[in-house]
Design goal:
Length: 397
């Protein structure tokens, strides 16, 4: 029986060859990723095509578009497609899909040859530097780049490049959930959620469902620098530890003092770690005091029994905002290898009320490494205050 894959009319220009780059953006449930994935599977069946699927941050194949493509292959029973551990291959046309992260992967990206189509998923997180590396790498005659994204900030590099500034031969497709509704692909449960947000949380509705960007004022931390490597002169001061739960990762962040500021270096960002495993990780690191989330006193006591020098963070009224304010006042750098710290830094925002007014409560979801960094750095604050007080006293002796 012939396989039928439906492509909404609004996305069909992606089959054309008269564009070089395509910006496909909008709110949630606008069918962007699923439709682009379907189009790429169709193209791979038509003739031999080499397709590279990119994201800014990809630590493993699980972080890529591999799962979405695999699900569609199974849904449509595409028996001509073979799934391997790290790639997807069409056994008839010879087309193949490969998966790469862009961040801190410049040499690997530059070495890729013969790409016909590059698909950059979650492109709102892609840095300007990554774009500068990627676009000349996809250089085969007739090659194309597709970027799918939900806008994050007003000047996301990909949106600034393709829509605000514009590039030659750029296809722009702006879609929202009404596309799914138009083609009968909007589940009732999602429709009810949309209507509830529209009525009771108009600010959230505009960002989540209409794809409107956050204002830069909602970004909690700004102007943090990225370091290619950790300076030899940097002095290790603390480890910050945020415990993971069933669906959240355990985050361990090393905190260094350097040149009057702090450097954050990612140690661990992993789900499913036991306290024994956390202890084993810490045991083989350079020694420094560990400051952990005080909401887990039993875990702290257990880790202490394994010989780790660990203390709970200090919590109290407004302690979160005070810790954030302290970090905001510091000069902060992040090592380039710290993928998850950088990802959270870029996505760490203040919440807004139903009318879009900013409130001093951080959004959840991108706060694991951010919390770990805050625990560790904030614990250093009293030491600095005491030291400064002693220095001031000496001036008057």
């Amino acid at each position: 029986m012939e396989t039928v894959i439906t492509i909404p009319r609004e996305f069909q220009p992606l089959f054309n060859k008269d564009w070089r780059e395509a910006a496909v953006y909008g709110g949630r449930f606008s069918l962007k990723s699923h439709t682009v994935a379907r189009i790429l599977l169709i193209k791979a069946r038509q003739k031999k095509t080499r397709i590279a699927c990119f994201r800014e941050f990809q630590n493993s194949i699980a972080d890529s578009s591999y799962q979405l493509l695999s699900d569609l292959i199974r849904e449509y029973k595409l028996t001509d497609v073979q799934l391997t551990q790290n790639s997807i291959v069409n056994t008839i046309t010879g087309s193949d899909f490969l998966f790469k992260g862009l961040w801190n992967n410049e040499q690997s990206i530059k070495s890729i040859e013969g790409i016909d189509i590059a698909w950059v998923e979650e492109a709102q997180t892609v840095s300007e530097k990554s774009l500068e590396v990627l676009t000349p790498t996809i250089r085969k005659e007739g090659s194309q780049l597709i970027y799918t994204y939900n806008r994050l900030l007003e000047e996301d590099p990909v949106h600034k490049r393709l829509v605000m500034e514009g590039r030659p031969n750029t296809l722009i497709i702006n879609v929202n959930y009404d596309i799914a509704e138009k083609y009968g692909m909007l589940p009732e449960v999602i429709k009810a959620e949309i209507e509830d947000d529209k009525k009771n949380r108009p600010g959230l509705y505009k960002h989540k469902w209409l794809g409107e960007p956050f204002s830069s004022e909602r970004k909690i931390y700004k102007d943090w620098a990225i370091l290619d490597e950790l300076p030899h002169e940097a002095r290790l001061e603390r480890y910050g530890l945020d415990f993971g739960y069933s669906n959240d990762p355990t985050a361990i962040v090393a905190i260094y003092k350097y040149n009057g500021g702090f450097i954050l270096d990612e140690i661990t960002y992993q789900k499913g770690l036991s306290n024994k495993q956390i202890s084993d990780i810490l045991k083989y690191l350079d020694q420094a005091l560990v400051i952990a989330d005080s909401a887990e006193p039993k875990s702290i006591d257990e880790i202490k029994l394994y010989g780790i020098n660990i203390l709970p963070c200090v919590k109290g009224k407004d302690s979160v905002n005070q810790g954030i304010q302290y970090l905001q006042a510091q000069r902060i750098s992040i090592t380039k290898r710290s993928h998850n710290i950088i990802r959270e830094y870029n996505n760490y925002f203040w919440k807004a009320d139903k009318d879009g007014k900013i409130i001093n409560v951080p959004e959840g979801g991108f706060d694991h490494a951010m919390d770990a960094a805050r625990y560790g750095a904030d614990s250093y604050k009293p030491t600095i205050n005491i030291f400064n007080s002693l220095q001031q006293k000496k001036q008057f002796i």
